[in-house]
Amino acid sequence: MKPRLISARRIGVLIFSLCAFGLMTSASVPADGKFVVEPVVEKKVKELPSGPLYWRLENFPTLEQAQGAAGPTSLAADIAGKVWLFTLGPKDGATPGGTKVVEIGPVAPISASEYLLRVNRGGGAPGVKTAIHTHPGSEAFYVLAGKVGQRTPHGVSYAEAGTTMVGHGADTPMEVFSAGTVALDQLAVFVVDADRPFSSPASLD
Q1: Domain map of the chain by residue range?
Q2: What burial class does residue 197 get, using C-beta atoms within 10 Å of its C-beta: 0-12 exposed, 13-18 middle, 19+ buried?
Q3: What is the pLDDT along the chain (205 residues), one digit of tens a residue?
């Protein structure tokens, strides 16, 4: 199944309903200081590779090349002036024609009858934060600019520009926030149970 690029109209609706991450540039930070959330690309798959899994982020010269090189658990997208291929698979993998940027993992294991793979991009001005929420699976972060913070029952974790952070397992309550002195711009990559709501309200109390 080919990845589905999400339409601008649908993005406009989802930006207010998803408590995750999405397509954003620092120039688009709302004046009211909200954490901007928009999905970039997603697809559903029936099976995942065996063993410990990592998200591999690679750059390609063109979107067509990235799409042509994509495997069953890959997502290709044009983000921030670069073409990206996100692949969920074993550690130390490589895609012919791609330039590896980073590898994130291992991600928390998940078992489902069908899986949703999704890439979101998001953030906002220093201090903005998401509502407290959960996801029915795992997520991984790669920071393009600024600094991301994630508060969970396990404590608070941070990642700065050019670095990564592995999220916790399914149904972990979390609050994500822009923790730096400049606007946060970051990618979040998910593998979740496709049969459950992507994001649900939660509490850290």
Answers
A1: 4-193
A2: exposed
A3: 556 665 443 434 343 333 333 333 333 444 458 999 899 999 999 999 999 999 999 999 999 999 999 999 999 999 989 999 999 999 999 999 999 999 999 999 999 999 999 999 999 999 999 999 999 999 999 999 999 999 999 999 999 999 999 999 999 999 999 999 999 999 999 999 999 999 999 999 7
Classify domain 4-193 by CATH architecture: Sandwich (2.60)
Euclidean distance between CA atoms 123 and 104, whole angstroms: 19
| Total-model pTM | 0.84
**Maximum CA extent, the chain:** 47
